Amino acid sequence: MTTVKQLGIIILLSFGAAFLIYKWHPKSPALYLVAGQLRPDEVTLNQVLKLKKERGVVWIDARKGLDYQKGHVEGAFLLNEQEDFFALLEP
């Protein structure tokens, strides 16, 4: 048996085992997004926009500085600790 055939068999067996484990595991996760399934500490975009109108929201953008300069949410603050780490330590 060639190495390629052996590799193919191993891959097929791995996928088969993964599928069976997923299918019968009591706590298998959903493989798709379901609207309305948020954790208690998460909010939707509509909720954030409502809060912005009512109380104000502070937007923190943690992307790289170049990405922030290309475009960001109006009023967002750039806070990227990897790029600005030493600047954050200064008084």
Overview of this structure, please?
This protein has 91 residues and is mainly α. It folds into 2 domains: 1-32; 38-91, no CATH class. Helices cover 47% and strands 4% of the residues. The chain has helices at 3-24, 45-54, 65-70, 85-89, and strands spanning 60-61, 77-78. A two-stranded parallel ribbon has the order 1-2. Helix 3 (65-70) links the parallel strand 1 (60-61) and strand 2.
Detail the topology: elements first, then pairings.
Elements: H1 3-24, H2 45-54, E1 60-61, H3 65-70, E2 77-78, H4 85-89
Parallel strand pairs: 1-2
Give a brief outline of the structure.
The protein is mainly alpha-helical and 91 residues long.
Strand content: under 5%
Count every beta strand, where a strand is a DSSP E run of 2 or more residues: 2
Q: How far from one another are the termini?
A: 68 Å
Secondary structural class: mainly alpha
- Gyration radius from CA atoms, angstroms: 23 Å
- Report strand order across the widest sheet: 1-2
Low-confidence stretches: none
Per the principal axes of the C-alpha atoms, what is the gross shape?
elongated
Largest sheet: 2 strands, parallel
Please, what is the average pLDDT?
83
Task: Give the helix level as a range of percent.
Answer: 40-55%
Q: What is the domain tally?
A: 2
Notable features of this structure?
single chain; 91 residues; mainly alpha; 2 domains; 2 strands; 4% strand; elongated
